[in-house]
Design a protein that fits this description.
By secondary structure, the chain is of the alpha+beta class. Helices cover 39% and strands 17% of the residues. The protein is elongated. The longest helix has 43 residues. The protein starts with 8 loop residues before the first strand and ends with a helix. The strands form seven sheets. Strands 2-5-8-3-4 form a five-stranded mixed β-sheet. A four-stranded antiparallel β-sheet has the order 12-18-15-16.
C-alpha cells in the first residue's frame, strides 16, 4: 500500500508536539526520593528499563530535565542506540533525554512506536552531529518525519502493537537462552573429554591410570612472541599485529581491523619463531585463555599479550592440547595461579610449568574426533539461532512499518510470528 488511509497525513514531529521544550531543574531542587533517569538505565533497541534509581542514590549535581508520568523519554545522544521509554511515574532525567508530552491529537504509545521505526532511526542517524558522540539537535528533531493518524486509530494501533510485539519479545526471550545453553554444552563436552569420561568406553583395555603427566614445556614450545613488550610503531597498510583483543569469543581472528606494523617488525618476529600447522595462541594478560589456532601462509605478527604455543606433534595432538587449555578445569586452575594485579596475568614461566595428564596419541585423536562431532551439532543450532534472531529483528521493523502505513492488521503478520514461534520450538527441541 503506497498511499495512506483516509484521515492520515505525513507531517514533521515538531508540527504535532513541542519537541525540545523542556522544564529544567537544578540538582538542589530535586527531592531525594525522586526517580532520576540516566541514559545507561535504558537498554538499547529493546527499550527495557535496566535500573530505576532515586536521586539520593546518584547524588547528581548537574541540571536535569523534569518529566511526568506518560511522557515519552527520548535519548538524543547516540540516537542509533534507539533508547526511548514511556515514563510510568514522574521524575527527572539527564538533559541528554528529551521528554516528549503527548497531546489530545497524539497518543503517547503511538508516539513511542513512531520513534522506534526504521524511517525515524534512519533520519536521526543521518542528521546527528558529532563523530564519537553523535547527538540529535533540536532543529533536526523538529524536522523528523511523523505520520499522524486519527487519535482513535492511534490508540487501536498502539493496542495492537503492544500485543503483537509482546509475542515477538517473548520469542526473543526464549531464544536468548540458547547462547547460554550452548556455552554450557560446549564446556560440559570439554570437561568430559579432558577428564577421560568421554572416551571411557572407547577401548576395552583403556585405563585412565595409563594417562601420563607432563608439563606443557615437555610437549610444546612455549614462546613469548614479543619479549620486549613494547608496542611497535603502528603504521597504515602494514602487517597485522594480532593481540587477544583481535580474537572473538568464538576464536575468530580479525586481521582486517587489527593494528598494523611495518615489514621490519615482521622480519624481527620471523627471526624468533616460524609458525607451523597446529600452532595456537593463548591470552596471558587481561583476557586469559581464548586458545585460538593460527593460520599459516599469511603475514602477521603477534602481540605481547598472547603466548605462542607450538605443540610437539610426536608427543601430543595439537588440537587436543588446544581443547585441553580451553576446558573449564584448566581455566579455573589458570585463574587461581594468575597474578592478581590491575589485570590478570599468566606468564611464560607458569605456562611452561603447567601440568597435564595425557592419554595415548590414538585416544587423543579419538577425543578430538568426538568433540568435533558434538561441536558440529552445537554450531548447527547456533546458526539456527542466528537466523531466527535476524528474522526477529526484521520482523520488528516490518511490523512497525506496516503499522504506520495502516497495514498492521493483515493476516501475514500473524503468519510470520507463528513461523518464528515454530523456529524457536525447533531450536529448543
Amino acid at each position: 500500500m503506497s498511499e495512506l488511509p483516509n484521515g492520515w497525513v505525513n507531517l514533521k514531529l515538531g508540527e504535532v508536539i513541542s519537541y525540545g521544550k523542556t522544564e529544567k531543574s537544578d540538582a538542589v531542587d530535586i527531592p531525594e526520593d525522586a526517580w532520576l533517569l540516566e541514559l545507561e538505565d535504558i537498554e538499547k533497541n529493546s527499550s527495557k528499563l535496566l535500573n530505576k534509581l532515586k536521586f539520593s542514590e546518584r547524588k547528581a549535581k548537574s541540571t536535569k530535565n523534569k518529566f511526568r508520568k506518560g511522557d515519552v523519554l527520548y535519548g538524543k545522544l547516540r540516537p542509533y542506540l534507539d533508547k526511548v521509554i514511556i515514563a510510568d511515574e514522574d521524575g527527572y532525567c539527564t538533559t541528554e533525554i528529551i521528554p516528549l508530552k503527548p497531546t489530545e491529537e497524539v497518543d503517547g504509545r503511538f508516539l513511542f512506536y513512531s520513534l522506534k521505526r526504521k524511517e525515524f532511526l534512519d533520519y536521526v542517524n543521518s542528521v546527528s552531529h558529532g563523530v564519537n558522540m553523535p547527538r540529535l539537535g533540536t532543529k533536526q528533531g523538529k524536522e523528523a518525519p511523523f505520520t499522524l493518524a486519527p487519535i482513535e486509530e492511534q490508540k487501536r494501533i498502539a493496542d495492537k502493537l503492544d500485543s503483537v510485539l509482546a509475542k515477538v519479545e517473548a520469542a526473543r526471550a526464549r531464544l536468548d537462552k540458547i547462547p547460554v545453553i550452548l556455552k554450557r554444552f560446549r564446556q560440559s563436552v570439554l570437561a568430559a573429554a579432558t577428564s577421560g569420561e568421554l572416551t571411557k568406553d572407547w577401548s576395552e583395555d583403556r585405563d585412565k591410570k595409563n594417562w601420563l603427566e607432563y608439563t606443557l614445556n615437555d610437549i610444546a614450545d612455549i614462546r613469548d612472541p614479543h619479549p620486549s613488550h613494547r608496542t611497535p610503531k603502528i603504521v597504515e597498510g602494514g602487517v597485522p599485529y594480532i593481540g587477544i583483543g583481535d580474537i572473538s569469543n568464538k576464536g575468530v581472528i580479525n586481521f582486517e581491523n587489527a593494528r598494523k606494523v611495518s615489514e621490519e617488525v615482521l622480519k624481527e618476529h620471523n627471526k624468533r619463531y616460524q609458525l607451523n600447522e597446529g600452532d595456537f595462541v593463548f591470552g596471558k594478560i587481561g583476557t586469559l585463555g581464548r586458545a585460538t589456532k593460527l593460520p599459516i601462509g599469511i603475514d602477521y605478527t603477534l602481540s605481547a599479550n598472547v603466548i605462542l604455543i607450538q605443540p610437539k606433534s610426536e608427543s601430543v595432538v595439537p588440537e587436543y592440547l588446544m581443547l585441553f587449555l580451553s576446558s573449564p578445569s584448566t581455566m579455573d586452575e589458570i585463574a587461581k595461579q594468575a597474578n592478581s594485579t590491575s589485570q590478570s596475568a599468566f606468564g611464560i614461566k607458569k605456562m611452561r610449568a603447567f601440568s597435564t595428564r595425557l592419554p595415548s596419541l590414538a585416544e587423543q585423536k579419538e577425543i578430538v574426533s568426538q568433540i568435533n562431532l558434538f561441536f558440529e551439532h552445537a554450531n548447527t543450532v547456533e546458526k539456527q539461532y542466528d537466523a531466527a534472531i535476524a528474522r526477529l529483528d526484521k520482523l520488528n521493523q516490518s511490523i512497525l512499518a506496516r503499522a504506520f502505513k495502516g497495514e498492521l492488521f493483515a493476516r501475514s503478520v500473524k503468519s510470520e510470528i507463528k513461523d518464528i514461534e515454530n523456529s524457536v520450538e525447533a531450536i529448543h527441541a
